[in-house]
Give the backbone structure.
Amino acid sequence: MPLFRSGRIWLVWSLIGLVFLLIGAPLFGLLLGAFTDTPPGVAPRFSLDALAYAYGAAQHLQSLGNSLAFAFCTATLVLLLGGALAWAAARTDSLLRHFGDVFVLVPIFIPAVLFVAGWILLLGPSNGLVNLFLVAGLNLSGSPFDIYSFSGMVWVAVLQELPLAFLWLWPTFRAMNPSLEEAAMVAGASTGMIIRRISLPLLRPTLLSAWIIFFIYSLGALAVPLMIGLPSRIILYSTEVYLAAHRVPGDLNLASAFSLLFLAVTVAGVFLYRRMTSDADRFVTITGKAFSPRIVRLGRWRALVDLLAVATLFLTAGLPIMVLVWNAFLPFPQAPSRQAFDLLTLKNFSDALSYGPAIRAVVNSLWIGLAAGVVTTLLGAAIAWTVVRYQRPRLALALLDQMATLTIATPGMIVGVSLLWFYLLVPLPIYGTPWLLLIAYITLHLPYAVRICVSGLSQLHKELEEAGWIAGAGWSRIALRIVLPLIGASLLTSVLYVTLRAFREYAASIFLAGPGTEVFSVLVLDLWDGGQFNLLSAYVTLVVAVLAAVVAVFSWLTRRFSLKLASSK
Amino acid sequence: MIEIRNLRKTFPGNAAPTLDDLSLEIPEGSFFSLFGPSGCGKSTLLRCIAGLENADSGEIRIEGRTVFSPADGTVVPANRRRIGMVFQSYAIWPHMTVLQNVSFPLEAQRREDTAALARRALEVVGLAHLEARPASRLSGGQQQRVALARAIVAEPAVLLLDEPLSNLDAALRDQMRAEILSLQKSLRITTVYVTHDHREALSMSDRIAVMEAGRFVEIAAPVDLFYRPGSALSARLIGGANLIHGVAQAGGEGTWVLDTPLGRLRSAVRAEGEVQIFVRPEKVVVVAEGEPPEGLWNLIACHVRERRFVGDSTELDLVPECAPELLLRARMQTEEAPAAGTSVRAAISPVDLRSFPKAG
């Protein structure tokens, strides 16, 4: 056993304590808020008014219905489309096979707000580019598309979540033991029968659990409900939370009361998700063994699949980026034309740079994001190591594992609202400082860091560490000289992933950012609210360019790191 | 009967071919093993027979039917080849019961009376009592049997086994080895068995193909392969062997003379020029120093460097006095084995000294 018994227990329990503080404290704040009618900072007075209003009023039930319908449609479509794409990338000879990771990475650059804004500029009823084109080209009397509708919301949300679905399903499809399908093939089954009787039943737990994650994610999304839903008077539950907290005077009690339902759905969902994925472990589809998956030759279908894949990539990344870059050079939104080209200007860029908090917001986002990336990764790596390597104390380890991944699908705004309560309550001078944002980002992204580190660590054979013990090294030397170098690439990936997620995070930030602590994504939303499309476009174009450069350096570092390891083997 | 002609396959990105112009005929009802070190192409060849992989060129016929011949444009997919296969990982479908697993090939091939036939296959492997059990709750040996039942249930033309015993513990492996063999004999099904364990290959097969680097080194019956291997390479791959360099010339009266670092040895097997001489360890006779024993040939003075008890016999590492850089390995009855450090004499009968022309 690596650590002495007492040292091990000490480590496990201090990690549990830390995670409990991250999750438990805001949860307490949320409950307190929901069951009182006093604003934070004042002596609490218990009351059920907020809860009664949140769950009793007819309009709230209406928005709950909207939310469930929205999340159901979005999650289902995302699963179908994302599943098909992931399958094509993992298991066929289509083009997607070669740029699968591009598909995962590119959309991470595009902040949610920007993505939605891009699509509004494309499909807006009065000045959407696609509409303008179609009206001019086909001599239509009115715009064929109206993004300000339920289907418009689902369309944008589905496209936005596709990369997530891809990220979720692609590795699973690749890790499927190919001999399970080969055995059916040898037994005489046709391709259709193999898919129906073998592949799909084997993947069912994975697909269902992925659906649950997409459902929760859609339920908690805020950009689409705010930017498309609100103008079209389709109020979702997440919109209610936002409105309750942001109307003047704000009603945080009501916002907390609303959030409780989200919390309940999330916990139930994560519980179901866990049950299904532990079921999936029973199915030996996913083992640590590196399989080379069986590649299906698509034959004449290949061209069609390639076309669809390119089209999807174009819709999820190409088109929104193009529309933003185009608008960045224009004084007001319009379709490309001879006159439009004459209007091209760089003024938006200079305006964006001189716009009050613009630079500060980017700097804030970058350093808070990076700090969150580093801290979350360190914590995640410690938790992953503990969970992967120790067998006892069993209960405490299980508790740590469950707690650390509890927030995997938690909507950002719950974390935002609840943190607001807790840190207004406690006499720590954190409110209104970047610390609050940092804590929120760590809480939200810890599960992802743990996941990445666990997958990195489980590839690292235990005996490599044990050889260190035998050689007489202490645990700090083993961590520094053996574990860290070997899982360094995973750690860098985790830092990069969390930093990027934190950079584009808006749902929690919107509640926590204030004057002086503006962050990029919230500022973009503000600009959008102020109707400054073109300034916003220029601003985002600049920042995404900077971000892309940062990521390029980062992935270069990661690759160098793995190369160095590979060559030293 | 399986006929393979001029099969070639090179995986993209590999310089060397994985299957290098292989031709082979496996007689009806025989047990045929593909034996060789990992990476020699034996599994790829098996998967080509199954249709799970396709060679670049060549021809495969199963029971007279051409299943693979890109020249004629014939490539019968795996699910139309009427084969049974046991995978190394067993590939038991974990979402089905034992019975569902076994009856699947019958359903896929649209047979009648699937349940009854599947039950009979389960009886054959002795698992009839487990038919309702979820396949995910089986031990390694039980999974092995289910895989076997699933492979034979549809009465395939050929049975392919891809290192089926490599995931079992030693005792179970011996038992399954015997069971697979008796099953094969009673069904008289043409069987191709891939293994890297020479004891498995020797004990089960009618014929063995020794493979290395995508080629057949030798195809022979087990006893011939063991005692009269056709090349130094297959001698080395199948069981331990002493290999010594030497120069051979005719010695008259049906004998040949081998000049080696161990001195001049006499052989009753034809040899010429530069050769590699091969002696099985159990053919090295060890006698105590002292009076010259009668009827022994090719006496070599040695001392015992090491003595190892290996269960059914004892292995000795002998260092020849005249060539202390060499090592001669002998195997003998434990009771008669001398202690380490003893000076002894090794003797090799002329009929047991086989030589191969030196490669290259």
Helices of chain B lie at 42-50, 98-108, 114-124, 140-152, 170-187, 198-204, 222-227, 232-237. Chain B has a mean pLDDT of 89.
